[in-house]
Amino acid sequence: MQSKAQTSNLPFTVAALYRFARLPQYQDLREPLLQLCNDNGIKGTLLLAAEGINGTVAGSAQAIAELVRYIESIPELAGPELKYSYASSMPFHRMKVRLKREIVTMGVDGIDPLRSVGTYVPPKQWNDLISDENTIIIDTRNDYEVAIGTFQRAENPKTRTFREFPRWVEENREKLEGKKIAMFCTGGIRCERATAFVKGLGFDEVYHLKGGILKYLEEMPREQSLWEGECFVFDERVAVGHGLAESDVVLCRACRRPLTPEDRKSPHYVEGISCEYCHDERTPEDRARYAERHRQVKLAEKRGRKHIGS
């Protein structure tokens, strides 16, 4: 496992950022942001909406610094929640700046983190909160993310999308009554909306991990950590561990689920074609199509090119 000093020497800087803000001019920001990123070799995705900005991008340290300076020059977006990590190769295929209705979608109207949100808990204080027996810890991420890592004692709502989370809360209200409610997610943004939703149901002691799992893994020494496993990230690194070092988790290219080394021991795992989780969900025709795609990916690699469909 690489140390923090080693990972910071890798050639690509990855910036995960978000900022909830009143941003009526968000449509006007798309082209300048896209142009700046393309001019500086930055790739990834940025989402813009009337409620702010959200995204993850990668590029050289100098390029990312220039992008962050530009974003912070916009008064409404100054002081974004920002986390840096590093990659040995470019973890994105292209650059996208998308206009959206929301920067994170939960499917419940009227939930505004700018009006009401849970109490932020910095990583250094998180262990004390989740070690309290009167605290219920909720992983607000989806089931495939939770599968490769989570905090000790955390509840897994087993959601396939964030839109299913409100229903889980409603179905488990009795379990939450009288408890401190501590929520966490990858970078913090889902918890902004999730804690606002739960507070709107009348719960008072609602907390969330400031900066998310990524900030915790960056700051918390492994020997003091209550995190178990790896943290799924939405790029070609697939997952990171303590110190935000790249992990040995890979994606199944058929179903996009993260696979640990143990998962890859399954007889149903065939690189680029199938895994234990999707083998029975796919037809022979599907697998033949995946096999051809995988062959094309390998041919592109031999020619020193990157196959976009990989």
Description:
It is a single chain. The chain is α/β, with parallel strands linked by helices. Helices cover 30% and strands 22% of the residues. It has helices at residues 4-7, 26-39, 61-73, 123-131, 143-146, 165-171, 173-176, 189-200, 212-219, 284-302, and strands at residues 12-20, 43-49, 52-59, 81-87, 95-99, 119-121, 135-139, 149-151, 180-184, 206-209, 227-229, 231-232, 239-240, 250-251, 258-259. It is globular. Catalyzes oxygen-dependent 5-hydroxyuridine (ho5U) modification at position 34 in tRNAs. Belongs to the TrhO family. Keywords: Oxidoreductase, tRNA processing.
Keywords:
single chain, alpha/beta
Summarize it.
By secondary structure, the chain is α/β, with parallel strands linked by helices. It has helices spanning 4-7, 26-39, 61-73, 123-131, 143-146, 165-171, 173-176, 189-200, 212-219, 284-302, and strands at 12-20, 43-49, 52-59, 81-87, 95-99, 119-121, 135-139, 149-151, 180-184, 206-209, 227-229, 231-232, 239-240, 250-251, 258-259. The chain is globular, with a radius of gyration of 20 Å.
The Rg value, from CA coordinates, equals: 20 Å
- Separation of termini? 26 Å
Helix tally?
10
Q: What is the helix/strand order?
A: HEHEEHEEEHEHEHHEHEHEEEEEH
Overall form: globular
- Main sheet: strand order: 4-1-3-2-5
Beta-strand percent range: 15-25%
**Uncertain ranges:** none
Helix content: 25-40%
The structure class reads alpha/beta
Give the tally of β-strands: 15
Mean pLDDT, rounded to whole units? 94
Q: Which sheet architecture does the biggest sheet show?
A: 5 strands, mixed
InterPro entries: Multihaem_cyt_sf, Rhodanese-like_dom, Rhodanese-like_dom_sf, TrhO, TRHO_N
EC number: 1.14.-.-
Function: Catalyzes oxygen-dependent 5-hydroxyuridine (ho5U) modification at position 34 in tRNAs.
Catalytic activity: uridine(34) in tRNA + AH2 + O2 = 5-hydroxyuridine(34) in tRNA + A + H2O
